[in-house]
Amino acid sequence: MFKIKNIQACSIRALVGLAVVTTLLGCQKSNVQLEPVTLAHNSLSISEQQQGWQLLFDGQSSGQWRGFKRSDFPSNWQVIDGTLHMKGDVNMTADEKADRGDIVFPQQYQNFTLKLEWKISKNGNSGIFYLGSENNKQHFETGDYIWRNAPEMQILDNHGHPDANRGKNGNRQAGSLYDLIAAQPQNAKPIGQWNNIEITVNNRHVSHKQNGVIVVEYVMDTPQWHEMISHSKFPSLNPNWHNVAVQGLIGLQDHNDPVWFRNIKIKAL
Fold first, then answer.
1. What is the pLDDT of residues 87-124, one digit of tens each?
2. Number of neighbours of residue 238 by Cβ within 10 angstroms
3. 31: left (phi over 0), alpha (psi -120 to 50) or beta
4. Which residue among 90, 139, 144, 169 sits deepest, i.e. has the most Cβ atoms within 10 Å of its Cβ?
5. Alpha-carbon distance 251 to 63, whole Å?
6. Mapping DSSP to helix (H, G, I), strand (E, B) and coil, where does residue 48 land?
């Protein structure tokens, strides 16, 4: 999308939406400069709407988001300054600590591209989940969490959180398929800066793109997939973790630390 900055001796025939269509008639000299028009946060461009993108967060309210395995919205999350924000333990009241949890968007997706932006607090940890299921009948003493059955794109302060040096070869650092595949290259931005991500799932082929670069690719349900999981932490937590749902929920993690999300949108493939 562009706007006309300077036109000399020209006629503008039409303006359509945010796209500028010009017809230059009888111009002996023209000086046309195009400047990008920044799309407002938490909105869809005309092109995105035509391509079938769906906005999952409008920046004004929690909308359809709710707690994992809940019908309401946990009180430790809030909508602030156009972001979905998890407040973190240090900022919660006693009542909020008693009413907390991961959040999910209730519509299920099978093949899709998910886009969003995140930023993390100092020493912070969080995650983005996909293909999550609420059909698991198990419940646990400390609550139930979407990570027990869904793949996770890790969110982390790589320089301050100890998880950055755990796991294998950096597979718990930002952008990674948590505890399974390290993000390569590791291009996460420092704390307080926004990171752009895309997660694409298409016929069980998955890619993580972080700040414009594909950093993880894999295929589920293959012998390599099962072998990789067998050497991870997941079998001890849930023996059936490798059987990821064919379609499922998008989730955002409450991992005790402040985290912010915005520009959350998805396109079914």
1. 988 888 888 888 889 999 999 999 999 999 999 999 99
2. 14
3. beta
4. 144
5. 14
6. helix
pTM above 0.90, yes or no: no
Continuous segment of H or E residues that includes residue 235: helix 234-237
Q: Are 268 and 111 in contact (CB under 8 A)?
A: yes
Residues 97, 105 contacting (CB under 8 angstroms):
no
Q: Which of 244, 242, 205 is nearest to 227 (CA)?
A: 242
- The first and second tokens of residue 65, run together, are 């988001």
Residue 243 vs residues 3, 11, 221: alpha-carbon distances, Å: 49, 61, 8
> How many other CB atoms sit within 10 Å of the CB of residue 208?
23
Backbone angle region of 159, left / alpha / beta, with phi > 0 → left and psi within -120 to 50 → alpha? alpha
- Comparing CA positions, the residue from 258, 80, 251, 252 lying closest to residue 161 is 258
Residue 28: burial class (beta carbons within 10 Å; 0-12, 13-18, 19+): exposed
CATH of 41-268 among 3.30.300.20, 2.60.120.560, 1.10.1200.120, 1.20.1530.20: 2.60.120.560
Q: Return d(Cα 174, Cα 148) in angstroms, integer.
A: 19
- Which residues, including other chains, have CB under 8 Å from residue 28's CB and lie 6 or more apart? 9
253 neighbors 129 (Cβ within 8 angstroms): yes
